Amino acid sequence: MKLILTGHDYRYAVEQSLLAFFPTERPVYEGEDVSQAAVALTLEGDCAAASTELAVNGRTARGAFQTRLPERADEYERERLKQRAVKLSFFAAARSLTGVTPAWGALTGIRPAKLAAGLLEEGLTPQEADRVLRDTYFVSQRRRRLCLECAQAGLEAKRELDPKEISLYVGIPFCPTRCAYCSFVSNSVERSFHLVEPYLEALLKEVESAGALVKDLGLRVRSVYMGGGTPTTLTAEQLDRLLGRLGEAFDLSGAVEYTVEAGRPDTIDAPKLAVLRKNGVDRVSVNPQTMEDAVLAAIGRRHSGEDICKAMELVDRAGFPHVNMDLIAGLPEDTPQGFRRTLDRVLAFGTDNITVHTLSLKKGSRITLEGSRIPTEAEVAEMLDYADPALRREGFAPYYLYRQKYMSGSFENVGWCRSGGTGWYNIYIMEELHTILSLGAGGSTKLVDPEKNRIERVFNMKYPLEYVQRPEKIAANQRAFREFYAARG
Ligand code: SF4
User: Fold this and answer.
1) Ligand 1 mutation target, pool 172, 177, 179, 226, most atoms within 8 A of CB
2) Tens digit of each residue's pLDDT (9 = 90 or more) over 286-319
3) Which of 164, 201, 406, 483 shows the greatest Cβ crowding within 10 Å of its Cβ?
4) Which whole-number Å values give the CA distances from 178 to 181, 413, 447, in the listed order?
5) In total, how many domains does the chain have?
C-alpha cells in the first residue's frame, strides 16, 4: 500500500497500523499502488488534528482524530500524543472500510501492558484503565483483561526493585539445527562446531571483566537469564566451566532467579541438568513449540513429541523449582485441533510456567521463503481462544506480554504462570524496569535509569565469529556501561 504522509514522518506508527488491518500489505512510499493511505497531521495552537483517507480495491473511507497538546507536556509526551492521533485516525478509516476491529483495537505498540501500567500509576483504578482501553483504543475484552493483569504484575515487580540492582543476560548463539521460522542470531552447530570452543573462551573472559565492573560500580545481580540459541547445545563440561566462572565473577547470592534455556529437547541429558542444578540454576525453559510430529518436522526440528516427553522426565527428576515451556500458535501445518492437543499434553507435564507465542515471520525466515501452509488468522485466533480459558482453569495467570511485528493476526505472546512461578527476568526486560547487562554475541545491553526515564542500548557483536575476533568491542561496551552509571550517579 502506498503511504502518503503529510505534516509528519511517523512512518513506524502508520506501518504498524497498516499491518494490524492489512497483514499482507507492505508499505511503499514511491511510485503508484492500487491501495493508498494519505495520512495528514496539522497543528493549530494546542490542538493536533490527524486525518486518514484510505483507498483499497476501489473502496474509500476517511477517519479523523483530534487531541489537545497540554502546555505542561514535555516534547516526549507531545510526540506521543501526535503519534496517537495519527494512529487513531488510521484506525477509524480502516475500521470503517473493513468493518473489522482487531483484537488489540488501535493499540499497535510492542508493550501494551506499559500503557496500562502508566494509567494505573497515574492513579486510575483498574476499572477506569479498562474503560480507557475500551473507549479510546477499542481493545477487545479478553485483551484488556490480559493487559491489565500483566500491568499489575509489572507494577508489583517494580515495587520490589532496588536502584542498585541489574539483571544479567548470557547469550549462547548455537543450536543443534536451525528452525525454519528462526529470526535469532543462531548458528547450527553442524555448521559452526569449530566456533563453539573459541566462543566459550572469549565469553569466559568477558564474564570475568564484566563481573569486576559490576562489583566496582556497587551493583547487585537480581536475576540471571542464559538464552540464545540453545545454551544446552554446550556439553556438560562446557556448561560447568561457564556457570562456574559466572558464579566466581558475580555475587549471585542475592539473585531471585537463575534461568537457563534448555530450549531444544534434543540437547537435554541428565549430566547437563545435574551441572545446572549444581551451579544454582533454579529455572529451565524447555521449548517444544508444538507436540505434533508433523509440525515439528515442518519447522525443521529433528525430534518427535515423544522425545519431548523423555526430556521432561529428565527435567522432572533433576528437581528444578521452576520450569517453563514455550509454545507457538500458528506454526506451519498446525491446526486448531493440533494446537489444542499440544496445549493439553503440555499442561499434563505440570510445569509452573507456559509461554504461548504467536508465530512472527520476519524477513529471512525460511518458511516465508518456502511458502509452507501457515494457519489463517481465524485459525490462530481459535488457538488463542482455546489457550486463555484452558490455562486459567489450570490455575495459570498471565504475567507478561509483548507483541512483535509481522505476528499472525497481530496478536501477542503471553507468559503464564501458576502462583509463585513468576519469571521475574521476563518482566524486568519487557517492562524495561532495570538495566540488563548482556554478555556474549547477538544481544544488547539495555541501560535503564528509571528515575530519569532514560533508556540506552549498547549492541554486542552480532555473530560468534566477529565476537571472537573483536574483543575491543566488549571493552568499548563496558566503557559505555561505566559512563552511564557515572552520569546516573
Ligand atoms: S531453537 Fe530457537 S534460536 Fe535455535 S534455531 Fe530454533 S528458533 Fe532459532
Assistant:
1) 179
2) 999 999 999 999 988 889 999 999 999 999 999 9
3) 406
4) 9, 21, 30
5) 3
